[in-house]
Amino acid sequence: MSMSSSCNGVLSCSQLLDYWDLRFPDEDLNGSADPTPQSTLKAGLDGSVRKQYMFAKKKAFALFVKELQSTSDSPGQEDVIRWRCCGQELRDLRTVHKHVASLHASEVWKRTQSILEELTITAATTTTVPSPDLDEDTGASAKMSWNQCQISDWLPDTSHFKKDELTSEPGEVLLYYCYCDVTDPQWICDWQRSLCQLLHLTGKIRIATEGINGTVGGSKISTKIYINAMLLHPLFKDNMCLEDFKTSEGGAHCFPDLRVGVFREIVPMGVDPLKVSYKDTAKHLSPEEFHKKVEQYLYESLHEHKDTILLDCRNFYESKIGQFQNCLAPDIRKFSYFPEYVDQNLDFFKDKTVLMYCTGGIRCERGSAYLRSKAVCKEVYQLKGGIHKYLEQFPYGFFRGKLFVFDGRYSISSNDDIISSCRYCGTAWDKYKLCSTDRCCQLVLTCTQCQGQGLTACCPTCQEKGISIHCDIDQQHYKEECECTQKRPKIPKEAL
């Protein structure tokens, strides 16, 4: 590694550690030895690198010590600070520091590595943000229009990362959306495509004049750089925060490719955003508030009170494997059917309090706006952050089963409940597979034993069709006839 490459103070975590081993062989990275005069002298040649490491190490140590802090249980000593670790109570800070340095150096080192990684990611995304133009007379910053810049101006500098750091597994999947006014959706589309390609991310991103909706997968370093890049962009930095990005275990392998496009809606409801706007959405409830509302709803249900509806805004195959207890889960195949479902069940919703939820919150934004536009409900609420955020705080709360996701995983879990069954034998099963018949897009729940018997289609019609097609490989075109869709009413009518 050249000297010049370290002088800017921006190194990848692995590069920094390799460089430290090379330049400071006398330094104990586990923190058990003081720097020697020789290593200190060498460190003087590489001040920015040393400062970056020492800052991370001190911060990691301080955070570890802070987590051990507690207050006394004795009467009159509630304000007395104590530290508890390894089954003993430590009464002064000096003793705590000695204890941590001697017995927990490896844990502090792991945290140091994480902080170094965060520093590197932050540096990569902040050093390339375009500087605003200065007014010639006043020297003040003039407002720069982001879409007048080159797309490359808004891309992070990844030259300090090795390729395997941007593609390593296990990674994670991000789920996010942001409703905001986008004046140049095509520019955002091009920027997102370039950003994802640079970071080796796969997934699906929809951009419209009403905002952005995305789910992408990649290495944990890549997803962190992606989040930082989003939060630094002028269009999103005042409309989004870190909490708006939901994360789950996964990676780039969860998606077949990268698809980024401009659409009329960021979630396809089939209603002109100018007629039903996200700005008319329902009141958002935090997971804690929603949990209390559901708890009250379940209690009232036991006493035959029917004033509240707990409404699942997702598709039938999503709610089939996981849902809130005693919810109303409409038997609809697509979210674009939701407006018609509401129209045909206005009497059912009349004078009711509606608690709405979906996967990450995006469908509830305009779904609740559409329901409110009918002016029949007493009140309408929606779960902020969706089921995803709820499960982060209440993994064993009122949501039971698996959370369906629109990628190769099909579902993620937070509890052990299985609320669905195999389509063929009825045994408890909640792992979806795509119907084995060509050109059928239905999902099927078929257990391992039934799969072994060749039962891999979504219904008997597809099962028969699959056999006939296999026998006639020359057949290329046919009309899809599937019991899964033909025997289900497109728009269900709820009983009053």
UniProtKB/TrEMBL annotation:
SMART domains reported for this sequence: RHOD (SM00450)
Annotated Rhodanese domain residues: 304-395
Xref: Pfam families: Rhodanese, Rhodanese_C, TSTD2_N, UPF0176_N
Stored InterPro entries: Rhodanese-like_dom, Rhodanese-like_dom_sf, Rhodanese_C, TrhO, TRHO_N, TSTD2_N
CDD domains: RHOD_YceA
Protein name as annotated: Thiosulfate sulfurtransferase/rhodanese-like domain-containing protein 2
Higher taxonomy: Eukaryota, Metazoa, Chordata, Craniata, Vertebrata
